[in-house]
């Protein structure tokens, strides 16, 4: 009896060390599957996010899409000085493998309420924080995967993630409802099947006139090209084009989604709600 009492006392003292959180269990399962089971390449979905009234609704929508993708590792980066309980709670409830980071956009690049979206670079600090995490925590030739910059205000068909596992260098596909068009898309050469140009509502002659949602990059390239980052020095609207230029030429792009004939991702920003009051005690 005394021994049993002693064991219980020791367990009580060390219970915090013995208990695995649900998130840690998911991480352990993820790692075990990668090591011992026939697994797909991991898709590292990078999602910058910031507080506004629809933030939880947006993150809920895409988190529930990601729950249908077996090989996902979600990297969520808050534009904030500290991680928030709202995002932390949503991550726990998602049952996904998640890395939760935060990186604050400097004041000189923060959008004001009436600023058009194109006026400032958005997501630079957050995407760079994710790139830094990938390069510090993953190992070239050991960890296999694909990196996708997945904004929180888009809508995603799970088929786009099925396309990503085919990526050898950089895969590309159409994006719906963007640039003043029903869709933007790479234009393919009928004979070679290679990308020869772009149908884009803005600056189609850019080296890579591709929306952030319209490409995914093999993890190996991210780990090799350690100087590849996003920058405030880039011309407005050129983040994607300049970033892709670190890795590949236009002719090397890999057209996916049935040779860029199918749309599996859309820009569908939620309407900004009119909120005149707050109900205490509800996390919305």
TrEMBL record:
Signal sequence interval, chain numbering = none
The glycosylation sites are 259
| UniProt keyword terms in alphabetical order | Glycoprotein, Golgi apparatus, Manganese, Membrane, Metal-binding, Signal-anchor, Transferase, Transmembrane, Transmembrane helix
Query: What InterPro entries is this protein classified in?
Result: Glyco_trans_43, Nucleotide-diphossugar_trans
Q: Tell me, what is one Gene Ontology molecular-function annotation carried by this entry?
A: metal ion binding
Q: Among its keywords, does the record have Transport?
A: no
Subcellular location(s): the record lists: Golgi apparatus membrane
Residues of the site described as Interaction with galactose moiety of substrate glycoprotein: 184
Q: What does it catalyze? A: 3-O-(beta-D-galactosyl-(1->3)-beta-D-galactosyl-(1->4)-beta-D-xylosyl)-L-seryl-[protein] + UDP-alpha-D-glucuronate = 3-O-(beta-D-GlcA-(1->3)-beta-D-Gal-(1->3)-beta-D-Gal-(1->4)-beta-D-Xyl)-L-seryl-[protein] + UDP + H(+)
Question: Where along the chain is the active site annotated?
Answer: 240 (proton donor/acceptor)
- Entry's Gene Ontology cellular component terms: Golgi membrane
Protein name (database record) = Galactosylgalactosylxylosylprotein 3-beta-glucuronosyltransferase
């Amino acid at each position: 009896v005394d021994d049993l009492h002693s064991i219980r006392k020791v367990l009580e003292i060390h219970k915090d060390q013995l208990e695995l959180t649900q998130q840690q269990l998911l991480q352990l399962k993820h790692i075990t599957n990668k090591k011992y089971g026939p697994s797909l390449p991991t898709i590292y979905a990078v999602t910058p996010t910031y507080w506004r009234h629809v933030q939880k609704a947006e993150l809920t929508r895409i988190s529930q899409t990601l729950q249908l993708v077996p090989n996902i590792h979600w990297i969520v980066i808050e534009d904030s000085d500290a991680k928030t309980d709202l995002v932390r709670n949503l991550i726990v409830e998602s049952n996904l493998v998640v890395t939760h980071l935060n990186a604050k956009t400097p004041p000189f690049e923060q959008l004001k309420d009436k600023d058009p979206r194109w006026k400032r670079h958005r997501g630079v600090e957050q995407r760079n924080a994710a790139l830094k995490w990938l390069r510090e925590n993953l190992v070239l030739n050991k960890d296999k995967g694909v990196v996708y910059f997945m904004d929180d205000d888009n809508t995603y068909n799970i088929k786009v993630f099925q396309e990503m596992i085919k990526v050898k260098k950089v895969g590309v596909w159409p994006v719906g409802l963007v640039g003043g068009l029903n869709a933007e898309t790479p234009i393919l050469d009928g004979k070679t099947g290679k990308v020869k140009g772009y149908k884009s509502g803005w600056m189609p002659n850019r080296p890579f006139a591709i929306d952030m949602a319209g490409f995914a990059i093999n993890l190996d390239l991210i780990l090799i090209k350690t100087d590849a980052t996003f920058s405030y020095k880039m011309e407005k609207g050129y983040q994607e084009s300049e970033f892709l230029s670190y890795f590949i030429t236009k002719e090397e792009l890999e057209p996916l989604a049935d040779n860029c004939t199918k749309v599996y991702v859309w820009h569908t920003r939620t309407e900004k709600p009119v909120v005149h009051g707050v109900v205490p005690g509800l996390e919305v």
